[in-house]
Amino acid sequence: MYKNCDFIQNINDELWLTEKEGENLTLSYRLKEIIYEENSPIQHILIVDSYDFGRMLVLDGIVQTTEKDGFVYNEMICHIPLSLHPNAKNVLIIGGGDCGVLKELSKYPSLNEIHMVEIDKSVVEASLKYLKGVSGGKIDKKVTLFFEDGIKFIQDKKGYYDVIIIDSSDPLGQAEALFEKDFYKSVYEALKPDGIMSCQSESPIYYSDVLKNSYDSIKELFPLVKLYSATIPTYPGSFWTFTIGSKKYNTVARDDFSLDTKYVNKNIINTCFNNAEFIENLINS
Amino acid sequence: MYKNCDFIQNINDELWLTEKEGENLTLSYRLKEIIYEENSPIQHILIVDSYDFGRMLVLDGIVQTTEKDGFVYNEMICHIPLSLHPNAKNVLIIGGGDCGVLKELSKYPSLNEIHMVEIDKSVVEASLKYLKGVSGGKIDKKVTLFFEDGIKFIQDKKGYYDVIIIDSSDPLGQAEALFEKDFYKSVYEALKPDGIMSCQSESPIYYSDVLKNSYDSIKELFPLVKLYSATIPTYPGSFWTFTIGSKKYNTVARDDFSLDTKYVNKNIINTCFNNAEFIENLINS
Lengths: 285, 285
Hints:
The structure is a homodimer. Chain A is of the alpha/beta class. Chain A has two domains: 2-66, Spermidine Synthase, Chain: A, domain 2; 70-284, Rossmann fold, CATH 3.40.50.150. Helices cover 28% and strands 32% of the residues of chain A. Chain A has nine helices and 13 strands. Chain A has a seven-stranded mixed β-sheet with strand order 9-8-7-10-11-13-12. Chain A has a six-stranded antiparallel β-sheet with strand order 1-2-3-4-5-6. In chain A, strand 5 and strand 6 form a beta hairpin. In chain A, helix 6 packs across helix 7. Chain A is globular. Chain A starts with 7 loop residues before the first strand and ends with a helix. Chain A binds chain B through residues 22-30, 50-52, 68-69, 71-72, 205-206, 229, 231-233, 237-239, 261-265, 267-268, 270-271, 274-278, 280, and chain B through 22-30, 50-52, 68-69, 72, 205-206, 229, 231-233, 237-239, 261-265, 267-268, 270-271, 274-278, 280. Strand 3 (25-39) of chain A pairs antiparallel with strand 3 (25-39) of chain B.
C-alpha cells in the first residue's frame, strides 16, 4: 500500500516515514504500521501509527497532527479566542479536517452553532474513523459540516460569527490564499461587530516572513491584534505561533477556566500574550 | 575528516548530519561544511556549519547547541535564576563547555566571581574558536575555568555560591550522575543560605521520567522548587524544561530587566512559571 509514497521506506525491516522540512532538514519517524491510505481528489491522505507520536495524519507527505502532541495546537488555537470572547454563540472553523478543533469546541455547552468548512471530506471521514485520539471519533450535534472551498464559503457570510478559527495547513499550494489579506478581509466581514478570529501563523524561526505578513495583514484590518506561541514538536522548528484579530475584546482573564484540557489552563490563558523578545521585535518591526 | 563519524553522510554531493533521537526518531541536517573535528579523551567533538541552524556543536553525534537557537536555552537557564536572586555575586556553572551561559553571565556587571567547571577543555577551546555565535569568542575577566569533574569539584565547596547553573548534556554516560539526588545535595551545600540553583530538566514529552525524578529530588532538598519551559527546536521533542531550587527567594518581578537579550524579557521573566496543564499534572503527581 505504502509503495505509492516515496516518503515511506522499509529499512532493515523497519518502517520509516521521512518528512522534508524545507530543503535542509528532514525528520524521520519509525512507524508501527500504515493505518489508512487514500488518494482523494484533493490530496494524498495517510494515517500511520508511529512509535513516538502515536497515530499521525499525513497529507501529501507532511505531518499535520499526531495523537501525542495534537492537543497543544488544537487547544491553543481554540481556547484562547474563546476565552477572549465573553459570550460566543456562533463559531466557524475554516479547514480543521482532522476534527481536533471540533473536539475542543464541543467542550463549550454555551455555543449555539458550530460550522466547519473543509475542502476535503475524505480527511474528515478518515480522521473520525482512524484518528480518534485527535478527533474524538464523533461530531457534536451542534456541528454543521460544509465540504467546500473555505475562501468562497466565507465570502457569502456577513456579520454572522462570533469567533472564526482558521485551522489551515502550511501556506503552500491551495492553502496559500488562507494567509492573504483578501481572505482575512472576508473573515473580518463574516464576523459580528465584536467578533474575533484566530489563525495559526507558522514558525517564527522557519517562516518568520509568513508570520510577519499574516500579522501585518490582520493588524491593518482589526483594531486589536495579538500573537501567542506554543511548542509543537512535530512541526518544523517546533516554535509555533497563533495570531488573533479582535474587533472589540482585548483582555483575557479567565480565572474560572475549568475545561478538561491537557495544555491550556487559566495561567496559560492569562499570560500567553507575553512573547519572547525576538518575536516581539519581529512583529513590531 | 568526517569519515570517522557514521552520522555524517555524503548523499548526492550533499553533506548531511543524522542525529538519532532515541530509537524511533531521527533528525537530519544538511551541512555546508565540517568546521572542526577532534577525538578528545572525553568524547568526539564536532563543529559543523548547517544550512538551517548555522554552526552547531555536536558531541558524540548529539547536537548540543546551535547559533540559531542556542540563545533560548542559554538565556533561560541563566537569566531566570539571576532574576530570582536579588543580589548574586558568586556564580558557578557546572558543565557549560560551549560557553553560551558564560556569555550570558558576562552581561551582569554586578557579579564578582564566575566559576565554570567543565570536564572537557577541548570543548571550551573549540567553542571559543569556532562557535563564536554561541560563545561570544572570549571569556570575561571575572571568569575562572576549572577543567575537572564537576561532581568532585562541588563536594569541596560549602556555602560559597549565590547561584549554581547546571548546564549538563543528556543523562547518558558520565552526565547521568548530574541528574541524581546525591549531586543535587552537593549543590545545595555549595550554595549560600539564600542560594539558588537552576538546571535543564529535559523534555516533558521525551524524558518525562527524568524530569519528574529531577524535580522530585530537588523538591526534597530545597524549600522552593519551580519549573519552567521553552522551545528549543534542535532538542528532541523541542519542549524543554528547566528546574530551579531556591533556599529563600520565591518571586521574580523584574520590571527593570533591560539586558541585551533575544529571548528573555521582563514579561517572560514575570510569567515563566506558568506551565501547561500536562506539565503541572506531571510535577504534582
